[in-house]
Design goal:
This protein has eight helices and eleven strands. With 320 residues, the protein is α+β, with helices and mostly antiparallel strands. The strands form three sheets. It has a five-stranded mixed sheet with strand order 3-4-2-1-11, with helices on one face. A four-stranded antiparallel sheet has the order 5-8-10-9, with helices on both faces. A two-stranded parallel sheet has the order 6-7. The protein has two domains: 116 residues, NADH Oxidase; 163 residues, NADH Oxidase (3-Layer(aba) Sandwich). Bound molecules: flavin mononucleotide.
C-alpha cells in the first residue's frame, strides 16, 4: 500500500481531480486501483456506449483525459509520476500504471490543476472574437508535447457535411436513440449530461446530438469559434489514449488562457465520416481522434456536471 512517503490523502485529492476529466456523455468509463506507490487506470467496459461509440475510441479518449488530469493533479501536489501505458497484453482493460515518488510541484502544473475545476464543455454560442494566432500556437505546442497534432479546420462546410452524414448514420443505428435518451438531458444522477449543460435547440456543430437542454444558444453575433482536430500518426489504442491526454492538456491550457472549449466526436464515431474527415478535410495526413471547438464563451459560468463518488471508482478506497 501507499506508505508515508506518498501520502494517501494527496493521492485521494489527485484522484478527485482526475475524475473531473471530460468523458463521452459524462459516462466516466474509468476505474482506479491503488497499488504500492502506484495508481492504476483501468477502462470500465460496463460504461461503454456501444451504439454511440462502436469501436470504443471515445471510451479510451475519456480514460486518456482522466490520466492526464491525474498527472497534472499529482505534479501540482509535489508528486512525480512516471507513466507506463498498456503494459499488460493479458489485461487489456489495464490502460496505465502511474508510479509515484516525491517531487517538486512545477508552477505550470499548479496553474493547470487550478483550471481543472473551472473547465467545462461549453456548447453555447461564442463571441465573434477569434482565437489569436499566438494562443493557437501555444495550444499546438501543448498537443505536440502529448504526442498529438492540433490542426485547424479550414473547410468548415466540409466538416459540417460530414457531421450531418454521421448524424444520419447514427439515426439508423439500433440502440443509438435509446443511449442518447438515457445519457443526455438528465435532471438528476451522478453521471450523464445534465439538461442545464445542453442547448434548448440544435447547436452549431452538435446539431441534434443530445436530448433537449435548458440553455438558450444564441448570442446574436457571428460565432468566431475555431474548429481544430487533434490527430495522431497511428490509430491504435495507445494513440487514442495519448490523444485523450492531449485533449485534456489542450482544454486545460485553453481554460488558463480564458478560452472556452468543447470536444466534438460525432463525426469520428462513424467509420465512413471519420475517413471523410481524414481524407477530405485533413488531406489524409493523420488519424483524427477528436474535433475541438475553441473560442471566447459567455461570461456566465456553466454549472459543473456531476461525477460518481470516489469510493465507487477507486479500489481499495483510501478512507484515511
Ligand atoms: C471522448 C469525448 C467525446 C465527447 N464528445 C462530445 C460531443 O460530440 N459533443 C459534445 O457536445 N460534447 C462532447 N464531449 C463532452 C462531454 O459531454 C463532457 O465532457 C461531459 O458531459 C462532462 O462535462 P464537462 O466536460 O463539462 O465536465 C465529449 C467528451 C469526450 C471526452
Amino acid at each position: 500500500m501507499i506508505t508515508e512517503t506518498v501520502d494517501r490523502r494527496t493521492v485521494r485529492s489527485a484522484l478527485e481531480l482526475a475524475c473531473r476529466a471530460p468523458s463521452v456523455h459524462n459516462s466516466q468509463p474509468w476505474r482506479w486501483r491503488i497499488g504500492d506507490r502506484s495508481v492504476h487506470l483501468l477502462a470500465d467496459l460496463r460504461r461503454w456506449l456501444p451504439a454511440t461509440d462502436p469501436d470504443g475510441r471515445d471510451l479510451v479518449l475519456s480514460c486518456g483525459a482522466a490520466l492526464h488530469h491525474l498527472r497534472v493533479a499529482l505534479a501540482a501536489s509535489g508528486l512525480r509520476a512516471t507513466v507506463h501505458r498498456l503494459t499488460d497484453p493479458d489485461e487489456p482493460d489495464h490502460l496505465a500504471a502511474v508510479e509515484l515518488a516525491p517531487g517538486v510541484a512545477p508552477e505550470a502544473d499548479v496553474a493547470l490543476a487550478a483550471a481543472i475545476t473551472r473547465r467545462r464543455s461549453d456548447r453555447r454560442g461564442f463571441s465573434s472574437w477569434e482565437v489569436p494566432e499566438a494562443m493557437l500556437a501555444e495550444l499546438t505546442a501543448v498537443a505536440a508535447h502529448q504526442g498529438a497534432v492540433l490542426t485547424p479546420v479550414t473547410d468548415g462546410a466540409a466538416l459540417r457535411r460530414a457531421v450531418a452524414a454521421a448524424a444520419a448514420a447514427q439515426d439508423r443505428t439500433p440502440g443509438y436513440a435509446t443511449e442518447t435518451t438515457v445519457w443526455t438531458g438528465r435532471r438528476t444522477g451522478a453521471d450523464g449530461i445534465p439538461a442545464a449543460n445542453l442547448l434548448r435547440g440544435p447547436g452549431a456543430v452538435t446539431g441534434g446530438r443530445f436530448a433537449t437542454g435548458t440553455i438558450d444558444r444564441s448570442t446574436g453575433v457571428r460565432d468566431g469559434a475555431l474548429l481544430a482536430v487533434l490527430g495522431t500518426a497511428s490509430d491504435d489504442t495507445l494513440s487514442q489514449l495519448r490523444a485523450g491526454e492531449a485533449l485534456s492538456a489542450v482544454t486545460l491550457h485553453a481554460t488558463t488562457l480564458g478560452l472556452a472549449s468543447c470536444p466534438l466526436t460525432q463525426v469520428l464515431e462513424v467509420d465512413a465520416t471519420r475517413r471523410s474527415l481524414r481524407d477530405d478535410v485533413l488531406g489524409g495526413a493523420m488519424s483524427p481522434q477528436v474535433v475541438l471547438r475553441l473560442g471566447w464563451g459567455p461570461q456566465e459560468a456553466l454549472p459543473p456536471t456531476p461525477r460518481r463518488r470516489l469510493q465507487d471508482v477507486v479500489e481499495p478506497f483510501p478512507d484515511r
